[in-house]
Each structure stands twice: as C-alpha cells, then as structure tokens.
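Please, structure for the following, as tokens.
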Amino acid sequence: QVQLVESGGGLVQAGGSLRLSCVASGRTFDIYSMGWFRQDPGKEREFVGRIWWSNGATTTADSVKGRFTISGDSAKRTVYLQMNSLKPEDTAVYLCGSTQYGGIETWGQGTQVTVSS
C-alpha cells in the first residue's frame, strides 16, 4: 500500500505564495505518477497538476498555469506545488494523489489553503 502525507497549507493574503509538499511512503516503487487536485465543499474535485516519474514530465491546469508550478523528487517520491500570485478563488482543500501500476489510486488527507482578499 501507499500512504501520502501533504503539508504546507495555510492562510495567505491574495497575491501571496505557498509551497505544498506531498511525501509518499509504503510501496512507492509502484507509483508512476503523482499529482495535485483541489476541492471546495459542494464542488467537484478539480485537477491542478501532475508529474510522471518516468521522464519528469509535468502538466498543469489552465486555471493555474503561469501561477502554479508542480515539481518533484523521484528518489524521495515527493511532489511539490509552488503556488504564486494566489487568489481568493484558489481557496480549497488541496489533495495529493498517486497512481500506481494496475490503475490503483491513492489519496492523501488534504491540506487547507485559504486565500484572503
């Protein structure tokens, strides 16, 4: 099994920055992709960004492109989300997810990000 633990969330003013981290443990050799999603109460989970460990390729959602950067350390199976120029609409619980071979997905507990105007 894989376990994911996120950290780095908090309260920040609009225009500020935060850096989220997600560390994987357990059967990490099964993981080929990790990513970030976010969710507000009453809304659908929204894709934010993903990284593939095989070649380090990344992708980010259009809604955050230019402001958020996803990166990672494959050896440590750790993924980061650098969030700059934060807006109140970025307020959400940010969840880390991993995809393992066989299509198994694992989710962390999430970390709250609150952006005040």
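The chain has no helices and eleven strands. The chain has a mean pLDDT of 95.
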